[in-house]
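dumping these here so i dont lose them again. two proteins, back to back, each one seq then C-alpha cells. dont judge the mess
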Amino acid sequence: MDLARPHVELSYVDAVHERRRRPLLECVTARFEDVTPVRPFRWSRGERHFAGWYWSATTGQHVGFESWLERDRLLLMDFDSEVVGIASQPFWLHWHDGERERRHAPDYFVRLADGSAAVIDVRADERIEPKDAEAFEVTRTACSQAGWGFERVGTPDPVLLANVRWLSRYRHPRCLHRTATDRLREVFATPGPLLTGADTAGERLATLPALFHLLWLRELAADDLPVELLGPRTVVRLAGGSTR
C-alpha cells in the first residue's frame, strides 16, 4: 500500500443524524467538533477499558471517552485555553490497504482558537501494535492532506494531570462566586501563597472554589503547575485574563 497519499474517505453523522460518506477533501471545512460520535460508548462486565461521558467546560456538553487514558487526555484538552471545540469519535476514515478496506475512528477532533483543527489519537506507547501504527500513519497523512494537525498521544505527565484533575472539580461556572472572585483578583495582583491569599480574600468556603475556578480559567496562574502538586504554599499570581 502507498501510505504517501492513500485514497481516504470519511463517514460521519451529519446535523440531521444521517450517515454520510464523502471523499476526504470534500470534508475539510466541515465542523466536526459539533458532530455526533460515529459509534456508541458501551460498558460491559469484564472489559479492560472503561467508557464514559465527561462534561466539558469548553463545549458546555458531554464528550465521550472509551478509556481512562482518553478521559485523562480529555481533561487536559478541556483545560487548554487554545481549544474551543472537542468531539469524540468524529468520523470513520476509510482506505484500502491493497488487500481489503480498512477503517479507523480517531479519538478526538479538536477546533483551536485560531480556527485551525487537529485530530487526536490516544494510545499508550506500549500498546501500539503494527495495525495500529499503520492506522495512525494513514490518519497522519490524511490530516496533512486536509490541512489538519495530527497527534498520537500517550500517558500524560502525572503531576500536571493530578493538578488539572483537581482543578477540573471546580470547572463548572457555579463555582464563580462574584464577590470572592473580585477579591481574589485584587489579592493575587501581588503573587503569594495559595491558602494565605484565599484567607485574605474571605471565607475559605467561598474563596477556595472560586480560586480553583479562576486557575481553571487561567485568570490566575500557578507557574509550577506542570512540575509541582498544588498545595497551600503554591505561589499564585494574576494572569492575563479568562479565555472562556
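---- next one ----
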Amino acid sequence: METTSRAEGVPTARRTAEGYLRASFPWYGLDEAFTGPRRLMQVGTAADGSVQHGSTGHGDTPSIKSDVSGVEKERFAVVVTVAASPVRRTGDGTGVLDATTVSSAAWLAGSGLLVHTWPASLDHATRDNWLDQQTETAFELADDLTGPAWSTLSLPVDGVPAPFHYRESEFGWVLAGSAPGVHIGAYGRGMSAYGLGFSQIKDLDAYA
C-alpha cells in the first residue's frame, strides 16, 4: 500500500517523507529511550488518496530469511500508526470507508510481522500458501482482542501509561493500543516489547 510514485529525478527518501507529511494525523514511534537507527517505511492510502496509516522502523532492517539463526539475530521494532476514524464516505462519494479501531492496528501489525517471516521448513513455492493461511489467522486474532491469544500490558505513550493488547508467537510479538486521534500497533523481534515506550514524532528528519 505504498503511496509514493517513482517520479524521475526525485530521491526516494524525499518521496517517502512526502507521503508521511500528507497525513492529517500525528505519527508515533519509539520514545527517546530508544537510541538506535530509525527509518520511514511506507504509508497506506484510501481510494481517494488520503493517508490512512503508515509504519516507522527502529533497529535492524527486518529481512525475510529462511535461515533461522540469521532471523534470531535481528533486533527490530516497527510502529504502525493508524488514523482513528469513524465509518465515513470516500472523498469522491462513491463508497464507504470502514471505521478504524485498535483491531485495525493489531491486524496491520500482525500482517506486517508475517511479511518478514519465513520458516526454515518452507520453500519458495509453499511460502505463499503459508502466508495466506497465517494472514487469515492474524485477521481473526485481531478481531478478538479479548480472546485468550492476547494478554494486556501497560506502556507509556507520550509519558503516560496506556493499555495495550499483546501477543507472542514463534515469529515475534505484536501489540496494539490507542493514543489521541490514532491507534498504535507494533511488531518486532529480538527487542522486548515490555521495555518499549511510544511518543509522537515531532521531526521526521530523525527518520530520514
